[in-house]
Design brief:
With 278 residues, this protein is an alpha/beta fold. Helix content is 28%, strand content 13%. A five-stranded parallel sheet has the order 1-5-4-2-3. Strands 6-10-9-7-8 form a five-stranded parallel sheet.
Amino acid sequence: MPFETLISAPELDALRREPGALCIVDCRFDLANPEAGATLWRESHLPNAVYAHLDNDLSSPIVPGETGRHPLPDPDALIAWLRSQGVSDDTQIVAYDDCNGGMAARLWWLSRWMGHAACAVLDGGMQAWEARYPLTDRKPTPKPGGNLSRQSSLLACLSTADVVESEDLILVDARTLARFRGDEEPIDPVAGHIPGAICLPLIDNTGENGHFRSQTQLRQRYTDALAPYADKTPVMYCGSGVTAAHNVLAMCHAGMPAPALYADSWSGWITDPHRPLA
């Protein structure tokens, strides 16, 4: 059975020793220093892990005044990049980072967007692996190009127009409560949130040890939060559509229907100064 939401460090260690196609992807990234993740990967990483750069590999170029900070990648370019890493239709992808899955969830979401379900986030991230197993600075062994094909998307993705025009949505903000309230805004030029949204910070999907909370706890969290909006479709958003995928992952891991993602998120919403703010 493929891993489709989370995978533990022991499960990954066992998996990499078995026959079968496996692609481990280091997704570490620092918004304040975009090249820091690649530098860290060169210094040490999981054995045979390749590196995915959020800006270059997992996003498309920003269109000023139109898109958010991390527009979704061109599907053909994404497929081509995955193939270049040896990914085929039967490949198990495992994404990891060092920030509780906040960046790795982007690759997980994109994989499912391409219709490839066999992608999981390493629970506890690089720290969980390093606590049990060695890291390496050796470059991964090059793999032959894969033959991954694009299938029907397994997730819903909404545009700004979708969000503006629909009255049947409940927007869920994955940012911190302070950013949601507009008390602080360290990244985007405008503070606040989209009117009508509620706040469920992604950090609360995990415990103090950096591991995701149990499926029961996650199911209770989202069931309770969304109960007052039972007649609406939940849509996750964040600052730029990256970490909101963490909330999508949490709900899927809890066995709940996958919520939609507003890809442009807050940074896309505020490109039009005429849109309402709260």
